[in-house]
Amino acid sequence: MSHSFKIIALSAASLLLVQGCKTPATYVESNSPQTIVSLDKINTQDWAQAADQMIISLLSSNVLARDPNTPTIMAVSRIVNNTTQLVDTNLLTKKIRVALNQSGKVLTTSVIGPGGQAEDELARELAAEYNYPPAARPYFTLSGRIIEDRASAGSTKQVAYIFQMSLTEINTGLAVWEDEKTITKQGERNAVGW
Questions:
Q1: Over the range 90-110, which residues count as b (16 or more CB within 10 Å of their CB) and which as e?
Q2: What is the residue-averaged pLDDT of the chain?
Q3: DSSP class of residue 154?
Q4: Cα dist. 93→12, 99, 158 in Å?
Q5: DSSP state of 136
Q6: What pTM value is reported for the model?
Q7: How far is CA 151 from CA 47, 55, 148, 187, 188, in A?
Q8: Cα–Cα distance between 121 and 110 in angstroms, integer?
Q9: pLDDT at residue number 122
């Protein structure tokens, strides 16, 4: 057996061994201990945890009862991203909207948004064309901010993501509910599980 052939055979065997050791992709529950925890980004489970805490806090506050009409109508305002990442804040707000709509206590409007941007442009155009009634005006707006705080000690890195949300009563301009949820992660590198 030639020297070149031995090298090729060993390289192929090494490649097969490395390929055989890799973990194949599988499905995991989005909020389970088998998900990847990374220090460099907000993970799926972070969005879910922050949204769940905000939903529980808002619904248990009974502040939605300030609106004499049931269910109340809410518009989603801007969620400011003060992190080092480019993130789609809909990962937070959509979870909150879905849960509030399913509670039967809130209807969210899709035709009113910050800067005149509607989630559903066609619905906005049709609402304007057909002059939708004042009863469809929102009573509340939901706004928020996501802040990032980083620290390290030796080789250990820590990142905290602070989710802040406010519910404002449009008629008075007062923030009638506010909450904050902090998710902190620590380690030397990304890992599976929490």
A1: ebbbbbbbebbeeeebbbbbb
A2: 82
A3: T
A4: 50, 10, 25
A5: G
A6: 0.78
A7: 21, 29, 10, 11, 12
A8: 8
A9: 67
Tell me the mean pLDDT in the region 79-95: 90
Which residue, 174, 116, 111, is CA-closest to 140? 174
- For the four alpha carbons of 169, 46, 91 and 82, in that order, the dihedral sign comes to positive
> 48 and 95 in contact (C-beta within 8 Å)?
yes
The amino acid that residue 29 corresponds to is E
How much is the pLDDT for 99? 95
**1-24: pLDDT as tens digits:** 565 656 565 555 555 555 556 777
Residues 15 and 101: their CA atoms lie apart, in Å, by 52
Residue type, 43: N
Residue 41 tokens read as 């980004």
Cα(179)–Cα(123) distance, integer angstroms: 31
- Rounded to the nearest 5°, which phi and psi values hold at 162? -105, 120
Helix (H) or strand (E) holding 179: strand 174-187
